[in-house]
Amino acid sequence: MAGFWGKRKREDPELQAQDADLAKRAGTALVAADERIRVTTDELVFAEAELGPDATADLRTALTAVRRHLGEAFQLNQLNHDEIPDTSEELRNRNARIVQLCEWAEDLLDERTAALADKIARARRAPEIIAGVRGDAALLRARIPHARETIERLDARYAREALAQVEANPAEAEQLLGFAEHSAGVAERRREAGQREQANLALEASTESVRRAAALLDAVETFEIEALRAESTLAAIVEDSRGDVAVALKEPHSPGVEKAIGELQAALASLPPVGVNTDPFTQLDRLREANSGLDAAIAAARERAARPIPPLEHVRHSIDDADRQLAVARDVIAGHRGWIGADARTRLAESERIRADLDHFLGRSASTVTVIDEDQREQAMAMSRRVAYLAAEALQLARRDIDSSRPQDPGQWGGQGWGGGRRGGGGDMMGGILGGLVIGSVLDGIFD
């Protein structure tokens, strides 16, 4: 016990030091938070004057919440210094709560003021931004004649469909620049009249219009470069496509390859003659699509050539065998419904389902089909074999259930099996069935 109390006494000075540090942090945080509220309130007044009340609504709401929660912090601090004595634990909990509330208030105000910082800085630089908008608009307006000349030059070389995406860009850019200059004037007049919020909206509209006008004029120059690149690529692809057609004609014969060759030849034939305005982007896309289709068809033909196709006679024989196996299993199970378990019936149902899927796959009854496409033969063979396998398994399980349902006592029914044969020799299923029929006839005669 002495060791325990000695340890407790050694820990008390450490705990007292921690409590003193926490109390000091709480007092400092409370003073800092109170000062931060005062400074942020002044910033809110300035921000409302610069941006208007709508833009500063979030900061105003945050200040209201911070004042409400800091009221709780001040009440806790007052409890720490009143005449009522408190325990160390109560003081510790109050000071921790004060620090928590003050840190939350600082973080929230930092977040809200940071969101307004860019807008305030922009509002302060409004005269500079307005001058920049007017200067940029003048520079972009000087580019409009060059853009129109570029469109005329492109119109003499490319089809109107290709130019549709940039043909109206110079006119649209000129309209946007006019709107930007007008919006800059509105922003300047509203700012002088003290309507800061409306001035900022007009200023944002003017800068956005200048940006869009610059993008439209850049698109004209970019289109010319991209069109030249597309023409160069198109010439190379045309040459490669003609070589691909020659190679494809030597590939194994298949409907897919023939169709792909026809589509690629049609794409090559649709190319306009020399001297006719073209749309290199559309033609390039069509040739690429046709080339991709031909590559896929050749790959499929080669894969099919590497895999032997089952003869039609073998497929028909497999389907007939599956139908025979299914018919036998169906008859046996239907004739012994009370003796057959769930396993045999499940195998039969699965076999019948795959058999119906086979008809659906071929598009008609598989038992009467006379022609099966080469692409379908392998799948039809696999499905019919699966039908036969499941039917045979169902028949095997059914025979097991029938045999297990027969009496196992050799002396029953006169020492004979259900079929009159010897059980020791493992009498067959049909003997059991016939024996059951004979016994039924005898019993009917007795009762009659």
How would you portray this structure in words?
The chain is mainly alpha-helical. It has three domains: 20-124; 156-307, no CATH class; 312-405, no CATH class. 81% of the residues lie in helices and 0% in strands. It is built from 14 helices and no strands. Helix 4 (126-155) packs antiparallel against helix 6 (169-192) and helix 6 runs antiparallel to helix 7.
The helical percent reads over 70%
User: What is the domain total for the residues?
Assistant: 3
- Estimated radius of gyration: 46 Å
Structural class: mainly alpha
Q: What is the H/E order?
A: HHHHHHHHHHHHHH
Shape: flat
Low-confidence stretches: 1-11, 411-448
**Average pLDDT for all residues:** 79
Task: Give a count of the beta strands, DSSP E runs of length 2 or more.
Answer: 0
How far apart the termini lie comes to 103 Å
**Beta fraction:** under 5%
Total number of helical segments?
14
Region (Disordered): 400-425
Biased composition (Gly residues): 412-425
Jot down its keywords.
single chain, 448 residues, mainly alpha, 14 helices, 81% helix, flat
How is this structure best summarized?
The protein is mainly alpha-helical and 448 residues long. 81% of the residues lie in helices and 0% in strands. The N and C termini lie far apart (103 Å).
Topology:
Blueprint lengths: L1 H50 L5 H24 L7 H37 L1 H30 L4 H4 L5 H24 L3 H53 L6 H15 L10 H27 L5 H24 L6 H21 L11 H32 L6 H4 L13 H19 L1
Helix pairs in contact: 1-2, 1-3, 2-3, 4-6, 4-7, 6-7, 7-8, 7-9, 8-9, 10-11, 10-12, 11-12
